[in-house]
Every structure is written in C-alpha cells, then in structure tokens.
Write a structure and sequence with these properties.
The chain contains no helices and eleven strands. By secondary structure, the protein is mainly beta. The model has no long low-confidence stretch (mean pLDDT 96).
C-alpha cells in the first residue's frame, strides 16, 4: 500500500488550498481514509475521515472550513481548505485502514497505512 500526498503550498491568511493523496495498492473493499496534521513541536491531530461509502466525519469545528472528498475512480483523497489561518500551518498526512467491524474514530493509532506528508504554510 502506498499513499502519496501532494499540493502543499504557502498561502496567505484567508486563502484556499486543495491537497491530494493518491492511494495505490489498497487491499480493502471497505475502508476509512483520513487526514491528519502535525505542527512543529505538537502531536498529530485529526482533521477528519471519509469512509468508502462517502460518509465524512470531521474533528471539532474544522468542518466549517475544510471538506474531505474522494474520487474512487482516481484512487485519490482530497482535502479542500478554505479561510486558512496561520494556526493551520502543519504537515498534512493521509492515512488508511480497512473497515473491519471495529469502531473507528479519529485517533492516529487506529490507522495502519500512512503517507509521507505535504507541508501547508499559512502566513499572516
């Protein structure tokens, strides 16, 4: 399984950005794909996840500005980020796990496959 993020960039406060994650070799018929982020000196935190049926779940109030989507024909996960703030500056990671009957929330430890990340920097 390989996950490759792209699209990270430097943007100004209030700007928008869409980042992508191409998933290859996915062995799961049903699965969860998630976005996490990690700022310097901080732990990895959830942005949100989407399941293979298209249902999305977000962490906290990020749903107000961020949208997770998936194009299954392209095996690509997207994160659309609007009204960006300096506190959104982080390395953004995508992650995958199979849907195996266990409850899956938004904890990084629940996800088994990870990409290398793409950097998003928001300047004031």
């Amino acid at each position: 399984v390989q996950l490759v993020e792209s699209g990270g960039d430097s943007v100004q406060t209030g700007g928008s950005l869409r980042i992508s994650c191409v998933v290859s070799g996915n062995p799961y018929r049903e699965y969860y794909l998630a976005w996490f982020r990690q700022a310097p000196g901080q732990g990895r935190e959830a942005v949100g996840r989407i399941d293979s049926a298209g249902a999305a779940r977000y962490a906290g109030t990020l749903r107000d500005r961020f949208t997770i989507s998936e194009d299954q024909a392209l095996n690509t996960l997207y994160l659309q980020m609007n009204s960006l703030k300096p506190e959104d500056t982080a390395m953004y990671y995508c992650a995958l796990r199979g849907r195996d009957g266990y409850f899956v929330g938004l904890d990084p430890s629940e996800f088994h496959h990870w990409g290398q990340g793409t950097q998003v920097t928001v300047s004031s």
